[in-house]
């Protein structure tokens, strides 16, 4: 009887909660959307310690005036901001905010001063990229990006504990925004350096790498001669030593 009473009480509580949380008649998704003022409140509650109450910057964080909504979306939705801890650079992790909250903060930051806007769906659409444009995207990537991210987009080490991140399985918007805003150690590739069409070609090339595994077999992390040399040193030379020991032990 006690168990039945607990189940009944829990069911009644859930039903009351569902009714209480139901969307009122006549309301719409637009009326529930967060505004730039909501974004300002979120920013001051979560970001002002380092970036200042009005995004003017402090000794612990840079000014965000003029960085634009594109920079906010990249940093927040890749989980780099808020930083988990101070270090050479912010690390990627699960985002701490929803897309709607990020957009609201981006709208507020964008209202402070002009800055790069988030890319449109048309700018991110790679479905119409031809094979020729895909090849051009690969060439653009090798010229402008491979010196840090390596030819396969697997990332690489930089100086003072910094690094270029792996570019596999990255959202198209975040790739575009990184090129547009130059986060952390990355240079800015504005539309005068790399046009929106060329950015789309680079995104298509990176997604092509995601969908097509290494044609040479096991890629060893695509880290180049370091991992390849280590593999040969351990397994290749180790195999030769093992075979030599086996051959010399046969006569005995």
Can you describe what's shown?
The protein is mainly α and 252 residues long. It has 2 domains: 35-118, Cytochrome Bc1 Complex, Chain D, domain 2 (Orthogonal Bundle); 121-214, Cytochrome c-like domain (Cytochrome Bc1 Complex, Chain D, domain 2, Orthogonal Bundle), CATH 1.10.760.10. Helices cover 54% and strands 2% of the residues. The chain is built from 12 helices and 2 strands, in the order H-H-H-H-H-H-H-H-H-E-E-H-H-H. The protein has helices at residues 2-21, 29-32, 36-46, 48-51, 68-77, 99-112, 121-124, 131-144, 146-149, 172-181, 196-211, 225-249; strands spanning 156-157, 163-164. A two-stranded antiparallel ribbon has the order 1-2. Strand 1 (156-157) and strand 2 (163-164) form a beta hairpin. The protein is extended, with a radius of gyration of 26 Å. The relative contact order is 0.10. Residues 16-31 have low confidence and may be disordered.
């Amino acid at each position: 009887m006690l168990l039945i009473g607990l189940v009944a009480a829990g069911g009644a509580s859930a039903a009351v909660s569902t009714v209480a949380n139901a969307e009122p008649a006549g309301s719409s998704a637009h009326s529930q959307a967060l505004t730039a003022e909501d974004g300002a409140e979120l920013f001051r509650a979560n970001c002002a310690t380092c970036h200042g109450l009005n995004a003017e910057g402090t000794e612990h964080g840079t000014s965000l005036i003029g960085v634009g909504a594109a920079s906010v979306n990249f940093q927040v939705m890749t989980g780099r901001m808020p930083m988990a801890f101070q270090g050479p650079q912010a690390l990627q992790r699960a985002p701490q905010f929803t897309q709607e909250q990020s957009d609201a903060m981006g709208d507020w930051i964008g209202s402070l001063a002009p800055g790069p806007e988030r890319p449109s769906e048309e700018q991110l659409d790679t479905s119409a990229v031809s094979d020729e444009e895909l090849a051009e995207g690969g060439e653009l990537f090798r010229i402008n990006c491979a010196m840090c991210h390596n030819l396969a987009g697997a990332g690489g080490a930089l100086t003072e504990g910094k690094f270029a991140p792996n570019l596999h399985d990255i959202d198209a918007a975040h790739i575009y925004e990184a090129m547009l805003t130059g986060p952390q150690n990355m240079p800015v590739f504005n539309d005068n350096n790399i046009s929106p069409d060329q950015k789309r070609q680079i995104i298509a090339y990176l997604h092509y790498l995601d969908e097509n595994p290494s044609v040479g077999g096991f890629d060893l992390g695509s880290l180049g001669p370091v991992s390849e040399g280590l593999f040969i040193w351990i397994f290749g030379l180790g195999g030769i030593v093992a075979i030599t020991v086996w051959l010399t032990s046969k006569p005995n």
